[in-house]
UniProtKB/TrEMBL annotation:
PPR repeat coordinates: 190-224, 225-259, 260-294, 295-329, 330-364, 365-399, 400-434, 435-469, 470-504
InterPro entries for the chain: PPR_rpt, TPR-like_helical_dom_sf
Protein name: Pentatricopeptide repeat-containing protein
Pfam families attached to this UniProt entry: PPR, PPR_2
Keyword annotations of the record: Repeat
SUPFAM superfamilies named in the record: HCP-like (SSF81901)
Family statement: Belongs to the PPR family. P subfamily.
This protein's record includes keyword NADP: no
Record organism: Escallonia herrerae
Length: 605
């Protein structure tokens, strides 16, 4: 919900001078409340006298009605006819029904039904009963609708519970609106409520709200506790400011407090991603020293971080140590480890873990299947990959973009782009969206097989779909166009990349320089080389050599020597065959600089 939206119930209600009433042309508005009715027109039933006998009768009928609305699906259609001689809309009776109805949703349904028949302006106590019941049931959307419908304002204590409900449901920005209302009426929420808001913001990834809540909390004079600090540490980690989070941890530890495992785990995850393994080790020792034993989630962060940094063997060692110490890895950790082993091509160990998790009662999910399928594709065992893919489909998984991409990528990597394209067409037939990975895999697959036309067609389709291309979308096309002598078409694609804000890979300039050299366009090739060097890009050694060879063969020795000098400055040395060829050319030249040039070349090669 937008902060300035008119649907913001609290900003809206503060501007209201009178509570909203529900108008019905055939009925007069009545006041419903625990205290009973106020006024009734002469043509309507008078309130039922509240003697002992009548009160007992009302209670009995209220129980019956409460049971009816619990058990009968369409009770609204028949309830009036079920009690022809009884006023179901009597305020005292309505409150009695609320008293006997423990289901907040059914109370709300009865409330709306009564209001649709007679119109009402409910009092504070009745509204509190319904609102608090909805909040207690975590029915956040129903509670919001009820506030907007009745235009009543709950007590501060009820609003604090509502804040907890909103935060639990991920509606953190709307919780901020409630905080602002409490501030306006002069009520300061408890520390527990502030902490719930901070936790909700962290879970929603809204660090901007974390800092806003914390700032307002400080303004209110609320003193933070160790939980508050833990959420701030997590927020620093979400903002990729792991070192600041670590500094805050050290401060709180020095003060004698120990945050929850979550704060430690987020710091460990952040340092794993950044490769600061010494900090990870220090955090583990700190946890143990402070009696805050690392849990399975702590080690999961470590293993995940190691696998992401391609330290899969170290991750596997820790995984096995965990099991030896009696920890029980969950399906997520097994999947992470299977994925890491597959990246290392340790398919035997990956399959062992697959069967091990099944034996322990964990069912592989789509991510686990895709990890193992990807592993089989990496090692070229496409038949096994197909078999596992079909098994995944049979179990009800698989018809997603990710699973299709796994198979498409595997097929394209092993020269089976046509089969991959069949899956691509199947995705369209089944309504599964293609994404950038789908197109990039197919473009690379077809181009590697020499089918540049199909690669170009797929690039155009990618652009027509409104997807933003990546460097990989163009690189292989530029490479193959240069190889087949279509270098100027490759340059057109390179310029198109720039126009679309896609940064070309350095190797694309290498391909173009090599292509220009093959076509004899040496002046243009030297210009591209100069542009690379000015952009602080380092051309490949082969790029220099191809250009030097071409220039030498065309007797453009001055230009060749200029390129050789650039090559030497970078730190490359000429291969012997190219060196001898160039020396031979120079020996046939009558230039007075021949002896010096040959000496420099031989000395630095």
């Amino acid at each position: 919900m937008a902060r300035n939206s008119i649907s913001n119930s609290f900003s809206y209600l503060l501007l209201r001078q009178n509570p909203r009433t529900i108008q019905n042309p055939s009925q007069q508005i009545r006041k419903i409340g625990v205290s009973g009715g106020e006024e009734f027109p002469h043509n309507q039933s008078k309130p039922i006298p509240q003697n002992h006998h009548n009160h007992q009768k009302i209670a009995e009928i209220a129980k019956e009605v409460s049971r009816t609305i619990r058990t009968r699906p369409k009770w609204e259609q028949t309830l009036v006819s079920d009690y022809p001689n009884f006023d179901l809309f009597d305020p005292g009776f309505v409150c009695e029904v609320f008293k006997h109805q423990k289901n907040a949703f059914l109370s709300l349904r009865f409330f709306y039904w009564v209001s649709s028949h007679c119109g009402l302006s409910p009092d504070q106590i009745s509204c509190d009963v319904i609102f608090n019941g909805l909040v207690e049931a975590k029915a956040v959307n129903a509670a919001k609708s009820f506030l907007e419908f009745t235009a009543f304002m709950p007590e501060p204590a009820s609003l604090e519970s509502y804040i907890a409900c909103l935060c639990d449901g991920g509606l953190v920005e709307e919780a901020l609106d409630v905080f602002e209302h409490l501030k306006v009426v002069g009520a300061c929420p408890s520390l527990a409520t502030w902490n719930l808001a901070l936790l909700g913001s962290v879970r929603a990834g809204r660090t901007d709200l974390v800092w806003k809540f914390y700032g307002e909390m400080m303004e209110c004079g609320v003193v933070s506790d160790v939980d508050t600090v833990g959420y701030l540490i997590e927020a620093f980690c979400l903002d990729s400011k792991v070192s600041k989070g670590y500094d805050l941890l050290r401060q709180v530890l020095e003060a004698g407090y120990v945050p929850s495992n979550n704060a430690f785990n987020k710091l460990i995850s952040g340092f794993c991603k950044d490769g600061y393994h010494s900090r990870v080790s220090a955090l583990l020792h700190t946890m143990i020293a402070k009696n805050c034993a690392p849990d399975v989630f702590t080690y999961q962060e470590i293993i995940n971080g190691l696998c992401k940094r391609r330290m899969n063997s170290e991750g596997f060692r820790i995984f096995n140590e965990l099991k030896d110490r009696g920890y029980a890895p969950d399906a997520v950790m097994y999947t992470t480890m299977i994925h890491g082993l597959c990246k290392m091509k340790w398919l035997g160990d990956a399959r062992k873990l697959w069967f091990e998790m099944i034996e322990k009662g964990m069912v592989p999910n789509e991510h686990t299947y895709n990890a193992l399928i990807h592993g089989f594709c990496i090692v070229g065992n496409l038949e096994e990959a197909w078999q596992l893919y079909k098994e995944m489909l049979a179990r009800g998984y698989g018809e997603t973009t990710v699973s299709y991409n796994t198979m498409i990528s595997g097929l394209c990597s092993h020269g089976r782009a046509a089969e991959a394209h069949d899956l691509y067409k199947e995705m369209s037939q089944k309504g599964v969206a293609h994404d950038l990975i789908t197109y990039n895999s197919l473009i690379q697959g077809f181009c590697k097989e020499g089918n540049i036309a199909e690669g170009e067609k797929l690039l155009h389709e990618l652009l027509e779909q409104g997807l933003k291309p990546s460097t990989a979308s163009y690189t292989v096309l530029i490479e193959k166009l240069c190889e087949v002598g279509r270098v100027h078409e490759a340059i057109t694609l390179w310029n198109d990349m720039q126009d679309r804000g896609v940064e070309p890979a350095a190797c694309t300039s290498d391909f173009i320089i090599t292509g220009l050299s093959k076509e004899g366009c040496f002046t243009e090739g030297i210009e591209w080389l100069a542009n690379m060097l000015q952009s602080t890009l380092v051309p490949r050694k082969e790029t220099f050599e191809r250009l030097i060879q071409g220039l030498s063969q065309r007797d453009k020795l001055e230009d060749a020597l200029l390129v050789v000098e650039c090559m030497f400055k970078i730190g490359y040395a000429l291969r012997e065959c190219i060196c001898l060829s160039l020396v031979d050319k120079l020996c046939k030249d009558n230039s007075h600089r021949v002896k010096t040039c040959i000496g420099n070349i031989l000395e630095r090669s």
